[in-house]
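Subject: Interface between my chains keeps coming out wrong

I've been trying for a while to get a sensible model of this assembly. When I model each chain on its own everything looks fine, but I need the whole thing in one frame so I can look at the contacts. Pasting all components below, labels as-is. Any help appreciated, I'm running out of ideas.
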Amino acid sequence: MESFGYTVLIPVILFFSFIFIGLAGGKMNKYLSGIIGTVSLLTVTVLSYYTAYSYFFVYGKAGGVYQKIIPFQTEWLRFSEKLYIEMGVLLDPISVMMLVVISTVSLMVHIYSIGYMKEDMGYERFFSFLSLFTFSMTGLVIATNIFQTYVFWELVGVSSYLLIGHYYDRPSAVAASKKAFIVTRFADLGFLIGILILSNITGTFDFKILTDPDGSAITQGSSVAFMGLSVMTWALILVFMGCAGKSAMFPLHIWLPDAMEGPTPVSALIHAATMVVAGVYLVARLFPLYALSAPVALHLVGYVGAFTSLFAAAIACTQTDIKRILAFSTISQIGFMMLGLGVSGYGGENGLGFMASMFHLFNHAMFKALLFLCAGSIIHAVHNNDMNFTGGLRKFMPVTHITFLIACLAIAGIPPFSGFFSKDEILVAAFEHDKFLSVVMFAVAGLTAFYMFRLYFTVFWNKDTQYQKTPHESPKVMAYPLMFLAAASALTGFIPFGNYVTADGSAVETPFHWNVAVPAVAVSFAGILLAMKLYKKESDMPAKISSSLGELYKIVYKKFYIDEIYIFVTKNIIFKYISVPVAWFDRKVVDNTMNGIAALTNFVSVKIKSFQSGQLQQYAYVMVSGMIVLILIALYFMKTF
Amino acid sequence: MIEGIGLEYFLILSTIVFFTGIYGFLTRKNLITILMSTELILNAVNINFVAFNKYLYPEKLEGQFFALFVIAIAATEVAVAIAIIISLYRRLKTIDVEKANEMKY
Amino acid sequence: MNILTLFLIVPVLTVIAILISRTKEQIRVSAAVGMGIQLIQSIYLIFAYLAERSRGNIDVMLFTKTWKWFESMNIQFSIGVDGISVSLIALTGIVIFTGVLTSWHVDYLTKEFFISLIVLSTGVFGFFISLDLFTMFLFFELAVIPMYLLIGIWGSGPKEYAAMKLTLMLMGASALLLVGILGLYVNSVQTGNPEFTFNIVDLSRIDLPIEVQRVFFPMVFVGFGVLGALFPFHTWSPDGHSSAPTAVSMLHAGVLMKMGGYGCLRVAMYLMPDAANEMGWIFIILTTISVVYGAFGAIVQKDLKYINAYSSVSHCGLVLFAILMSDKISSNGAVLQMISHGLMTALFFALIGMIYERTHTRDIRFMGGLMKVLPFLAVCYMIAGFASLGLPGLSGFIAEMNIFVGAFQHSETFYRVATVIVCSSIVITAVYILRVVAALLLGPIKNEEFNFLKDAVWFEKASTVILIIAIAGMGLAPLWLSELISESLNPIIQKLSLLNIY
Amino acid sequence: MEKAMFYILSGMILVFSLLTVTSRRILRAAVYLLFVLLGSAGLFFMLNFNFLAAVQLTVYAGGIIVLIIFSIMLTSHVNEKLEAAGAKKSVFSFLAVAAGAAVTLYAILNYSFPSVSDRVNDSSMKTIGTMLLSYKDDGYVLPFEVISILLLAAMVGAIIIAKREHKL
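Reply #2:
Try treating it as a single job with all components included. I did that and got this:
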C-alpha cells in the first residue's frame, strides 16, 4: 500500500511559494516571481497527476471500491475530546479529481499570466496571491474534516477578494471585491451555523465519520426540530447556504458577475474553474448525509440549481460584456452541477447524477477556463470588454478563434466534445428522477448553445470593426495554455468517469440514452443555428427582437433587478435603518445617559456649592436655625419617651 | 438676691438679650457691629452665670469666676477681632462682611 | 527570588533609569530596554510555566508567594500564575514593548510620558499576577490613574473631556468592584475558612451562600464589565480611544480592556458560580447586544479610531459572552479572544497612529489609495483587518471558533439562539473592515499631498512586525496556546459545572 | 425699691440692646452697647457681686468699648449711616431668633428650679483673690493660668495680624 505521504507537499509547496513571493517579491526581478510561482505550481501539478495515477490505477481500490485514504493528519486546534480540528489530507475520488482540476487549470493560468500580466505593476503581488489561492483551494479539497474545509473556505474567499481587487485603484474593482467577500461571508455564516449544528448532533467534524453511510452520523438528528424539518435537514440546508454563496447560486449569485473586475486569468481560475465549484464539491463531499439523511435538503439543492441555471442562462442572452456573459454562463453551468447532485441517489444506478455532476465539474473547469483565457486574449488584443465593439476577429486571432470555438462546442454539448457527455448524463439522471426538472434543463441547454454562439459569432464574425490598433494574436506563452485546454475540452469527455468518481466509490454504469441525447443535441443545434442566423452577419434583427420583447427584455437585461434589491437591502435597510440609528442611539441615548449622569452630578454639586457661600451670616443663620430645629426635635422626643 | 425677683426674671432678660445679640449677628453687615452683637451675647451669658450662681448655688463662686473669665476672654477676643478687622480693612477697604467672602468654594 | 516579583521590580528600575536620564534618547532607550526585558521575561515565564507543569506540578497556581501585608485584616500580597495569566502577561509584554516603540517620537514631556506609560503597564502586570483581591484592586487602580494623565496631557482632540469621561466611568466601575470585593471579604468566613480573606485561592474553596452571591455577582461583573466595554457601559471606549495617544490606545484596548474579561472570569465566575449560573442570562443578553450593536455601530463611523473602538466593543463583548457561557471551550475561546483582540487592536491602533501622523486626519472620507504611497503600513493594516474579521491563519479565527463551537454546546435554546445572533457578527465585522480598508487604502489617491508621504521607519516597522508575528503565530499554530489555557480553565469550569445542571 | 431698680435696669438693658443691633449709626450703636454693659454691671451690683461689677465696668465698659470705638474711628466715618439689612434677611433672622427665644423661654418657664439654699458665700475681693490663685479644692489657678496664656497669645496675635505687611 502506497503511503501517499507526499501529498502533503502539495499545499505546503504552495504555501511557501506564497510566503516567499509575498515577502521577497518586491526585492527581486519581477519576472522571477512569476517563474517561481509557475515552477512551484508545475511541481504541484506533477505531484497531483502522480497522486491521481497511483490512486485511481494502482493503490486506491480495495475490494472494487475506492477507499478514503488519510495519508497525513495533524491536530491543529482542539476544542474538546471529541471536537477538534485536524489539518490533513484526505484522498478519495473527488478530492483527487479536484486536485487534478485545480493544478491543471492553475498551471495553465500561471503560464498564461506570465504573458498576460507582463505590463502590470502588481506582478509579484499577483503571483503570490495566485499561490495563496491555489494553496487554499488544494487545502479545501483535501480537507479531512468539515472544519478544515471551513478554514480553507475562508482563505479562498479572501484570496478571491484580494485578486478581484487586484486593480485596487479602480473604485469598481474595489467595490466588486468587497461585494464578493461580503456576500460569500454572509453565506459562510450559514455554513458556520450549519457546522455548529452538525457537530452538535453528530459530535464530530470528521468527514470519514460524517459521511460513513453505515455510520451513526446518518441517523442522528432526524427528529423533527423546526418548521417540520429535522435538525439534520436544517444543518444541511445551512451548509448548502454556504455552498450557494461560494458557487453563486440564486439568490447569492450577485457577486460573481461583478467579480469579473479582476484580471481575466483570475476569473478563469477562481471564478470559473475552481473556487466557484467549491460549493458543488462540498455538497458532493457531504453527499451521503444529503442523500441518506436529509432528502429534503437534497431536493432543495436540485431545485435551486435548476432555477439558477435557467435564470442565469436567460440573463446571459442579454448581456454584452464578454466576461459577464461568461460569468452568467458559469452560474448556469454550476446550476447544472447542483441539479445533477440534486437528482442523484446514493450508490448504484441511482448514483448517476452524482457522477455526472462531478464529470461536468471536471469538463466545465477545462472549457470554462479556456473560454475565459480566450476572452482574456481578446480583451488583451482589443482593449475592450464589450462585445459590441468587436467583430471579425477570426482573421486576426486564429488560435484564439479555434480554441474558443472548441470551448463553445463543448459547453453547448455538441458531440464529441466533453460537455456533451457530462451534460447528457446529467440530463439522463434528471429525466429519470424528475421530468419537470429535465424539461427545464433542456431549455437551459438550448439557451446555453444560443448565448455562447451569440458571443462567438459577434466576436469572431459579424461586422468588420475598425480597430485603432490592429489586433494581434497573443504571444506563445499565452497561446500554449489555450491549446492545451482546448485539447482537454475536446478529449476529456471520453474518460470513463463512472468507473472512477462515484458517490460510494464503486463503479457506476453510464448507459447511453438515445432518447435523451438526441433531443439534447437537437436543442443545442437549434440554439446554434438561431445564433448564427442572428449574429453571423451584421443585422438589426437582434435589436428588433429585443425591442419587441419590451419590458421582459429589459427586466432580463437588468438581471431581474436582483442587484438593485441587494443595494436596497444593504444601503437602505442595513446602513440607513440599522447602522445609522445604532450609531445615533449610541451617541445620543447611551452616551448621553452617561453624560447625563455626569451632568446631574455636576448640577447637584453646583447647587450644593452655593451653600458654601463664604457668607458668615448665612452660616450662622443655618447654625442657629439648625440648632433650634435640633432642640425642638430633642424636646419632642424627650416628651414622648 | 433681690426680693420679689425670681431667677426666671434674670433668665428671661438674658434670653432676650442673647437672642437680640444673635439677631444683630445675623443681620448687621458691618464687622464691628457684628462684634458688638457678640459682646451682647457674651453679656447675656454673664448675666446668666451670675444669676444662677446667686439663686441656685449661693454658697459657691463658680458663676462669678466664669463670668470673670468670660470677660477676660471677651477682651482678648475683641483685641484679636479688631486686629483682624483692621487688617481686613487695609486689604479690602471695607469691613462689610458680605464682601469678605474670599473663602467661597 | 520569585520570577513574578521581577515583573514589578523591572519597571521600578526602568522608571529610576528614566528619571536619571538626561537626553530624550536615553529616556527612550531605557524605556525600550526595560520593557524589552519585560517582554523577554514574560515569554520566559511561559516556558518556565510549561516546564513546571511538565514536571508534574498540578497546583492551581504556580510560582506562588505570599507576604503578609496588613496582618490584622489578613490582606496579603499574594502572587501566582496559571495558564491564563501567563498568556495574558505575555500579551502585555508584547503590547507594552511595541507601545514603547511606537511612541519613540513623543517629544512633549518625554520623561513624564514614559514614566506614566510604565507605571500603567506595571499596574497591568501586577493585576495579572495578583492572587489577592485587594492587591488586584490596587493594581487595577494603578493602571487606571496614569491613563488619565496620558490622555489628558498627550492626547488629541477633546482630550480633557475624554480623559475625564474614561477615568470617571472606570472609577465608577471600581467603586462597584470595591463593594463587590469587600462583600466577598466579609462573607468569607464560612465553614472551612475561619479567617476573613481576600485570597482568590482560599475564596474559591468556600461555598458562598447564594443570597450573598446574588448581591455581589452583578457588582463584580459589572465592575469588571465596564472595563470590558459591556453594553451599555461602553461609551468611554470610543471617546477615550479616539483622544488617547497611540501607545495608550494600544495599551488600553490591547491590555486594559482584557483586565475586565480576566476579572470577570477569575473573580465573578470563579468565586460566585451559583449566581453566574442563575443570573448569567441577563448578562448574556447584554453581551449579545454588545457584540451586534458594536459591529453595527462601527459600520457608519468615519473616524478610524472610532471604528476600532466600536469594533473593540463588539470583540470584547464576545469575550464576556463566551465567559458567561460557563463552558470550557468557549471560556478557552474567551481567553484566546482576549489575546487575539489585544494583539490586533494594538496593531490597529499603532497603524492608525502612524497613518495619522502622516496624513493628519483620521477621517476616512478624506483618505484613499494609501496602498500606493504607504505599502508597508497598508499591508499591515490589511493583515490587522483580516485578523479582525476572523480570517483563518490569523489569531481572530481561532478565538471566534472556540467561542462559537463552545457556546453552541449548550443544550438550551436560549443559549443557542444567542450564539447564532453572535455568529452573525462575523458578517457585520467583514462589512465594516472591508469598508474601511476600501476607503482608506484602496481606490485612487484623493489628496494630492499624500503622494509625498513616507513609508514606515525602523521603529514603526519593528513594532508592527512583532505584533504581526504574534498574530500569525497564534493563528497558524494555535494548539499549544489553546492547551496552555484550557488546562488552567479546569478548576473554574469544574466549579461552574458542579452546580450547573443542564 | 430693689424690685423697681431691677425693672429699670433690665428695661434699660433690653432697650439698649435692641438699639445696639438696630441703630444705623455705628458710633451710636457702640454707645448703646456701653449702656447695656453698664446696666448689667448695675445688676451685678444689685446681686452683691461687687468685684465682678467693677471688672465689668473697667474691662468691658472701659476697655472693650474704647477699643471698639477706636476701631470704628479707624475704619469708618463717624457720620456714615450703615446700610440696613435686607428685608428678607431681617425677617428670616427675626423668625429664627423669635423661634429660638420662644423655645428657650418655654423651657425656662416650664422648669421648676430647685429651692434656694440659705448659705451665702461672701464674694469679697480677698476671697476671690485667694481662690483665684489657690490650687486646692475650689481653687481656680488652672483656668487663671490658661487665661493668662490666652491673653498673651491674643496680644501677640493681635500685633502680628494688625501689623502692616511688608510689600514683597
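Reply #3:
Confirming on my end. Strands of chain C lie at 62-70, 75-81.
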